[in-house]
Amino acid sequence: MTTREIQVTFDCGDPAALAAFWCEVLGYAVEAPPEGFATWPAFLESVGVPEPEWSSRSAARPLEGHGPRLFFQRVPEGKTAKNRVHLDVRAAPGLKGAERLAALDAEAARLVALGASVVLRQEPDGLDEACIWMNDPEGNDFCLD
Questions:
Q1: Which of 4, 67, 119, 141 has the fewest CB atoms nearer than 10 Å to its CB?
Q2: What is the per-residue pLDDT for 71?
């Protein structure tokens, strides 16, 4: 079977702002315009995209290493229910106990300063380690794991 790349797509109200948020969370960068163009507006104008649509999409890629491309597309409606699929941001891989909780709490505080919100702090229960359920600035669910 062929291995495939994946892209994670976010429906949102402000693609540029949400892309910037997720770039900070994951160490990504907003995708550069196509070769031969200094800016996205220059490219979009060259292919005939109307100016009101220039801010309708954004994308982000990892700065180094591997990871999925993130794509952000403007939609008219807001989020209405809990996501059935969400991202787990591995903020404390391999850590346990108090060290894990400290790392998760520190990352949660950093992300709250960027516009995220904490929904639930899951304490360790013997079966699972601690994690923190959060929402990004537009209400999309993710977990710090």
A1: 4
A2: 96
